[in-house]
Every structure is written in structure tokens, then in C-alpha cells.
Amino acid sequence: MFSTTARARLLVGAALALCPAIAHAGQVTGTVSDASGTRTLPSAQVSIVELGRSVEADSAGQYRFSDVPRGEYTLRVRYTGADAVDTPITVDAAGMVTQDVAVGGGGDILVTGQRANLASSLSRQRGADGVESVLTRDSIGQFPDQNVAESVRRAPGVNVLNDQGEGRFVAVRGLDPSLNAASINGVRVPAPEADTRSVALDVVASELIESIEIKKSLTPDMDGDTIGASVEINTTSAFDRKKDLLAGSIEGSYNHYSGEVTPKGSVNFTRKFAENFGVSGGASYYLRKFETDNIEMDGWNTDEAGNGFADSVEYRDYDVRRLRTGGSLSLDWQPAPSTRLYARGIYNRFSDQEDRRRLIFEMDADPVASTATGASFDSADGRIRVERDLKDRFEKQVIQSYSVGGETETGPWRLRYSAAWSRASELESGSVDPITFRRDFDGEDGDDLSVAFDYGNYLRPRFAVGGASAAAFDDAAEYGFDSFDRTTLSRSVDREWNFRGDVTRSFALAEGTVELQAGGKARLREKTYDLQVDTFDGYDGDFTLADVVGRQSYRLAALGPVVAKKGERGFLDAEAAGFERDSLGSDFASLAEDYRVGEDIYSGYLLGRYQAGPLRLIGGVRMEHTRNDIRGSTVTLNEDGDAGEQLLVTPNRIRRRYTNWLPSAVVRYEATPELVLRAGAFRSLVRPSIGQLAPRFALERDGDDLEGAFGNPDLKPYRAWNLDVGAEWYFATSSVLQAGFFYKDIEDYITTVTFEGDDAPYNGSYRGIAFTEADIPLNSGKARIRGVELGFSQLFTMLPAPFDGLLTNLNYTFTDADGETFDGDTGGLRTIPLPASSRHTFNAVLGYEKGPVSVRLAGTYRDKYLDEVQAVADEDRYVRQHFQLDASARYRITPNLQLFGEWVNINDAKYVAYQNAPVTRRLLQYEEYGYTLKFGVRANF
Q1: pTM of the model
Q2: Which of 74, 91, 699, 866 could lock onto 708 through a cystine, CB 3.0 to 4.6 A?
Q3: What number is the average pLDDT over the span 521-547?
Q4: 405-420 burial, b for 16+ CB within 10 Å, e for fewer?
């Protein structure tokens, strides 16, 4: 067997053998920019026609050809949205030619507005090696949407999962968000939340970024840790522009539920102090106050009459104050024509103050009467527990990333090098989660309460109380203190050091070029989680809801007395000595969650690239070696042992290592100047989530029952073969019709399964720990995803005025994604749609832009999807289909001043989760938020 080094020598030798003797070989370089001289044009296609050689302009709009023989040539530059530009050049004996090119001299390149966004996005998509979608901002820093998650919602094959009406997590091609990866300036973003690898991308403000690339095909020089897509977020560079920029905006945001107007502001700038040195950056501030009305139901069963009922019903009232702040700064320096250096940093802070008030019904007995659309309960048949509580939580997330690096080109050689440090954290300290007041209505104690639930509108079930105890239901003094949980500390910290180096050698052929590229990377990561929960379940005195009663802002039902927002704080502080801490329960809940996970990844790759005329071939292999050092604890709570209640803690430490080889190949072919064909196949992986991997084994013993929740440090990574085939027809100015097919075959798919004591393969013992019931994450089987993506974008410039300002962007994705999980009914496997996988997604944008006016109407549709897998199919949680309509308008008063407005969620789209019952759907969660209006002014200089 040849070693990797020997194979590399063979490839180099073969390439050298193909190279003709080139006399007086020279170099052709330059910069591509728009005709106004405002900004550079990344991904413009530059070719030397006679030699069949082509390159794409880099992020600074610069291009370079080495080993160009002496002679006269035609330099051709193409950019979507403009006519091709041909420039004659002469490479003489000196061998050095610098030729800058301005594109769009006829005024057909716009640098601001929707048309600029579309032209830039399509140009980068067209020039890409593999299948990808790109979103960019225009020359005055305008991005189509407010944050990264909301922006990528518009791309083909993308589904954004909402949290309280805002897009947060990104799912691509029917895969769970945890199977995607995100980078900022080429550096993987660590996850602030404790148990996951997925990053909530709403943390990053759109004002701080220059572009978002959703890369669905991988090449060997890319990290191989994604199956869905790699979301690449790029901040600004001083070399993005030819002219300096200072832009800012001030706006107000009105949520019609809360009735409040909150501020938002941003500033971004680019300044070149010399032709070879510049600074760019920005800052943003966004305070949003909003309210959410929610209903949740659980414990669905069927009574003797065959009618369904829920034994737990909650009416939830949320008031949220969400603050996002951030800043970015980039320094760019070109000390020599052959070398560019940079230093970049981005800091984002996300804080969330949530006040949640609940009215909770818990019924011990089946209903005394039921129909297909309702159920009635009576305290004479069984206890009806009513709880009223408050969650007062403040949480802060921070994501920051800092990197330095550069690129040096000399002759046929290109060197790239970088180092980076990233940190993500989530902190919660002192939250009350929750404080609960309780009243039990029990016929045996002389209570007489009836509760009737009307399921006629399954989205908004209503309730009515009756009986002699109905007055007590509405009396705050009847609800005594039960308990409160304080999150004294919840701190998750994820850090990563990143070092990378790449070297490329280019060989000029008689027609075209061959490049050999190799590189290495080290990612040194450590993630820790520390939890301290204190539960107080007793109070030495009288404490009722009447002491902290407030007013409801809930709109879906009359709840009766509720806990005042922040009303509990003063009482808890003043009477702290009177509360009794549940020491064992608190310590068990805290110690069972702590972990420390080290993950070092060392990778190397070898890549070959062939470009000749319309054909581009890229192939190679990547090796990734992973080392884990994982620490957690086995925590056992003995509730009735011979020595009384005991808490036993045993530290665990597990080390492991494994290596993955990831081959890939990509073909790009321009069948005509307007038609681009693509195909790609690659191997990739996703490592298990941190929470699943950590050796945390929590076990509660009650007599002979031992119930546990276990981590699994033996989990293998998801591994997948991926195939992409696509065609893009750029039939007119800034217009494209595209279609693609994708297929993914995933091995070692991970699901969490509940095992009874006699279930194989553990038969009541996991890693030497006995149990009668335990939740364990497992590599449970295979999953397959196949689908089609269709897209259409066009500027209707061929229409007569004023309709020549119309533009549209449409895309549709069909995804067929299924996998296997354990079936609690049969003990075997059952087929499920993959979690977060929507069968149909559709995005439509209709815009108009002419003169000072720019308007946009955007609609996003997402089909239903499986949200959570349970032991049996009837208990699986699904999220209903979602369609949301948004609109925006801008009016430019002067070239430097613009008014704008947005209307988000025009149709008041709701969030609905449910179970599939034999006859009808059973509600699990219903939320409504109302719409949001935004308005403001933007200036640029």
C-alpha cells in the first residue's frame, strides 16, 4: 500500500509531466468593481479566453492568474446582472500585468436595494464549486431581514424553527438543526446552550454581517462535521469596498400584543486609511418587548366511552423582554501585493427576561362525563389539583469569535494561514423557576368543584368551573405556598482554539490549470456545564397567593388570580430564613447535570482541482481524528434505604478516540454561458451532542424501582453518504431558473429510547448500573433523505414602465426523510419521519424597486414536522404547518437618507403542536403572538 505522502508525490509528478515548457511565464492580477467605484464584486468570473483559464474574484474582488505565457489575450469578466466585459491585455517579457475591471458601465449594476442583493447572491451562487445558496447585504449595509435565522428562511431547502414567534434554529433539507454546522469568518461557532451543538442564529444581528453562505456540498478543504449544511457567516472587510462608508439607522418596534414601542439602532462603517490598509465594523442594539398567550395539554387518554381527554391542562401567559447587542471589527492590511493579512472579531450578547404565569389543572380521575368534543371532571370522583405559579427567569447568552490570518501568493504557490479563539456561554443566576401556589379540591375533604373542558375548537380549549367550591377557585387566599425552585447557577461555557494552514500549487496546462492543495487543522474544544438548583418546599409561616397577587394580561381565558410579575421577589428576600430547602432533592438535581467534555479534532486533507474552459473538477479526501476526554458523575438518590435517604456520587472519566476518512468529489460544468450543471458526492459526519455524550448517570431508587436517565459515552457519530445533482439556467439579467436533487444515507442515527428492566440489549444493567426503567440515547439505525429543490428568480426589466421595477424570488423544496426508532408497543423498530423534517417548504418574494421606492412582500410556508419522538407512535409530538406573511417598504428621500417600515407576521400565524389521535388531533401546545410593526430612518455617508 502506498502511503499518503507517496500518493501526493505521484500526483505532483503527474501534474508536472502534463505541464508544457512555458517561456517567459507571467502573472495577471487585478480587482473587479462596479462602474460607480463604490464596491468590489466578489465571485465575478474572470477568464483568459484564449487559454481556457478561469478564476472567481475573491472576497475583496481580486483575481490572479500565474504562469501566463507571453502574448496577447482577451480578459473576460462576467457578473450576474451585467453584460460581460472584454478587455485586451498583453503579457510582455516583463511578465507582470495589473488590469482592474469596472463592470456595469451602462448603469445595469445597482449597489443598493433588493436588486443589488439579488445580483450579488446569484453571482456568488453561480461561481461556487458545489451547491450553495448565498445571501448578501448591499453597499450601504442593508440586509433583507433582522437576524441570520430570519434571513436564511428565504433560501431553498431551509426550514427555520421558531421560538415565541421568532426564527432561531435552522434545519436544512429535512434534518434536525443539530446536524448543521455554523461558522463565523471560517471558524466554527460553539454553542452557548448546555446540551447541544446547534447554535441559535438569532443571536447574530444582520447589521454585523456581509454575507451568509449555506453550503450544501462539501469539498475536502472544509470541515466534515455537517450533514445538512454548513452555514458560513462572514463579517465585513475594508477591502469589500472602493469607497468609505458610514451608515446608521434608528427605528422603533411595536408589538400589538404588548402595546409597547421599543428601540433599535445600528451603525456600520468602512474606512480605508491607505490603499493597502483599512478598518470596518459595526454595532447594533435591539430591545424587544412582546407577549405570548399559550395553552398546553398533556396526559391524553381514552375513557370508557371511547372519548379522548387530557389529565393536565395549562394556560400560560408570557411577558418577554429580549435584548440583543453586538459589535464587530475587522482590520485588513496588504503589506505587499502578494500578501493580505487580517484580524477580525465579533461579539454578540443576547439576554432574555421571561415572566411566565400559569394556571394548571391536574385531574386524578377519568371524566364523569365526556363527548367527542369535551370532558367534565368532578372532585367527588377524584382530586382536582389547581396550581398557580410564576417563572421569573433571566438568561444571558454570549457568542464571541476572534481570528487572525492571511494569504500569501508567490508565483504558482498560495499559502493560507489562520488562528482563532471562540467562546460561547449561557448564564442564569437567581432565577425563580417557578414559585407555586396550590389548592387541592377533593371530595373526601368536603370540596365540591367541577371543571368542564370544551374541546370543540381543539386549538383553544375552554374551561368552566362550578359547584359549591367555585368561589374558592377564584380566591387567592385559598392557594397556599407549595414550593419554589431557584436556579442559583446555571452556567454553560464552550471554548475552542482553532489553527489552520493550507498550501496550494498551481500548474498551467496548454488549456486550463491543475491545482494541488493540502492542509491541516487543529480544533481544541472544551465545554463545561455547572448547575446549582435549590428547591424550597416548606415555609415556617403563612404565605398564600393573596400576598403576591397581580393582574393577568392573558387574552384567551379569564384565569382568576395570578402571581404578580416580580411580586415574589420582595417576599422571598425578606423572609428567606423561613423557607426550608430540600437538600437531597436539590443536590441530586444539581450534581446529576454537571459535566466537562474535551474534544480535540486534528484533520488533514489532500485536494486536486482541474479547471479548463467550462469544466471544473474537484476531488480528494479528508481525514479527521477525534479525541474525547469526558467527565460526569453517577448520582444515585436512595429515597427509602436502610440508612434513610442518601445521595451517592461517583465521578466518571472516559477517554476515547476515533478516525474518519471523508472522500468527496464535485463536478461543475458550464454547458452554455447561461447553463451551469453540478454534481457532487461526499462523505460527512456529525458527532453526538454534548449532552448525550457526557457520562451523566442519574438514578432514583424508591424501594425496588430504579429509574434513571443516562448519557452514553459510547455513542458513534452520525455518518452519511451525500449526493447532489443540479442545474442552474441564468436566462436573463439577475435571473435564474434552477433545479436540484439530493440524497443522503445516514448510518448510526441517534435517538433516545426508554428501556424497561427486561428489555434487550441491556436487560436491566447499563455500564454496571442496575435499573428498572432508563432513558438511554442510542445509535438506533439508518435514515434516508431524498428530495428536490426548485428555484426561480427574475427581474422583470423587459416590461413597460412602471412595471419594469418588479422582481420575484420563488423556491420550493420537497423532502422525503425517514428513519427508524425503537417501538415501545412491539419492542422492534418503527419507521418515522425524521425530526424537524417538513415534507414541503415554499418561499415567495414579490418585490418592486424603482427610483426612490422599494417594497417587498414575502411569504414562507413550512409543512408539518415531527418535533419529538416518544415510546409509541400515538404519543409522538408534531408541529402543525406554518405560513407567515411579512412586508417591508423603503423610500429614499435623498441619496443619503431613507425611511423604512416593516410589518412582520401580517396574518398572525400561530404555533401549534399536537398528537395524532385515532379520530382527531390532540392539542399539546398552542401559541399566538400577534404582529410586529417596525419603522425608522437610515442614513449613509
Answers
A1: 0.88
A2: 699
A3: 94
A4: bbbebeebebbbbbeb
